[in-house]
Amino acid sequence: MSDTLHIVGLPHTMTNGEYATCAYTEKIRKFCDMMTGRDRKVILYAGEHNTAGVDDHVVCVTAAQREEWFGPHDLGSLDRGGFDWNPGSPWWSHMNGRAIGEIMQRAKPTDLLLLSAGQAQQVVADALGSMIVAEFGVGYEGIIIKRHGPSPAFAAFESHTHRHLVYGLNRWQNSVRQYDTVIPNYFNPAELPQGDGGDYLLFVGRLIQLKGVSTAAQVADALGMRLVVAGPGATRWGDGYVRFPEGEARAPGLEYVGAVDARERSVLMGGAAVTLAPTVYAEPFGGVAIEAMMCGTPVVTTDFGAFVETVVEGVSGYRFQTLQEAVEATDLALGLDRQTVRDYAVDHYSLDAVRPMYQRWFDNLDGLWGEGWTALRERETVA
Predict the structure, then answer these.
(1) What secondary structure letter does DSSP report for 173?
(2) Does 282 lie in the same domain as 150?
(3) Nearest one of 351, 363, 364 to 53, comparing CA atoms
(4) 149: nearest Cα among 122, 118, 181, 178
(5) Which end of the chain, C or N, has fewer beta carbons within 10 A?
(6) In angstroms, rounded to a whole number, what is the distance separating the alpha carbons of residues 127 and 91?
């Protein structure tokens, strides 16, 4: 069995809860909290400031270096069109190089190497070729394919939808990777307390056309409800109007509050009547929907991508295919029981609910050092 999980972080943020706009940073932070104190040691190789629960924190990027590259906050990179995931950039070259060196000093071949930035961390996977790569929380298309070393790489996708999309893009329909799996994103209910709801609709996310903020504004306008919009990438442009790089959104009661941290986000979600997530692409997971549900707030989403797996109609929210359906679904969602919504989210996506899924995956990967896929365990007798 692997004794240690070696988790490599990202160069543009710190795992201290202050970078809620980066879903992957938050995923790493919560993963450490979820897995530390169990049967495997957790070592995090990341930025200088860390509040995640770990057994050992190895600094690979100082706060001064991060600020030199990206400014006071990572939002500066978003203003330039998004964070640069090019592995040849100075920040990735530094981060990956430091992580490789530090892991080489600590790891055994049977330990697991956990990566979550896809091909931006390909060089780490190749340099540590004797270790099995467990790529967790995959919500992107450019997954790691090991090119060097005896041990392979496998992925835990955030949804079945996204796994099938990636397989299709790679034309793997007839060559399923047996040790890949699907494990949903995970959240700490203590960070997302249930709220009493209120009289406004909520949109939280990056202000890009694909996230559907304009649709959210149209729904609010049709229902005569106030819409609160939170997220990076836009500017206020008078009452009821927000402009973002790819377009604009307007509604009589629209209020843009800018980017918010994790605490502000939970307050907004708990106070919303309904959260709208009208994404117009195949969402790999859509964590905003689960965060809102944990606050007891039902969600209304489009009817494709991971939402078909996470949003149970009439229980945690509704899905729609047309603008008329979106308006009707939002009206219906106003009547859902908030305790039921929260219970559903906690039962399926809390740290306690998801942890056993990862433990089972790691146990299966450990088997690759033995009989692997062909190993048959003794069956329990069923009375």
Answers:
(1) T
(2) no
(3) 351
(4) 122
(5) C
(6) 18
For residue 329, give the CATH number of its domain. 3.40.50.2000
Q: 346-370: per-residue pLDDT in tens?
A: 999 999 999 999 999 999 999 998 8
Q: Which residues, in sequence order, are bridge partners of residue 59?
A: 46
Domain that holds residue 236: 189-346
164 and 273 share one domain: no
Q: How many domains does the chain have?
A: 2
350: tokens are 């809390």
For 114, residues 6+ apart whose C-beta sits below 8 A from its C-beta are: 5, 6, 7, 8, 31, 133, 134, 135, 136
SS3 of the chain: helix, strand, coil, percent, to 5: 40, 20, 40
177 and 100, same domain (yes or no): yes
Strands 247-250 and 241-244: antiparallel
Amino acid at 357: M
DSSP 278-321: ---S--S--HHHHHHHHTT--EEEESSTTHHHH--BTTTEEEES
pLDDT band at 20 (very low <50, low <70, confident <90, very high): confident
Q: What is the tens place of the pLDDT at every residue in 110-159?
A: 999 999 999 999 999 999 999 999 999 999 999 998 888 888 899 999 99
Residue 156, in any domain of the structure: yes
- Our CA dihedral for 35, 41, 46, 49, rounded to 10 degrees, sits at 80
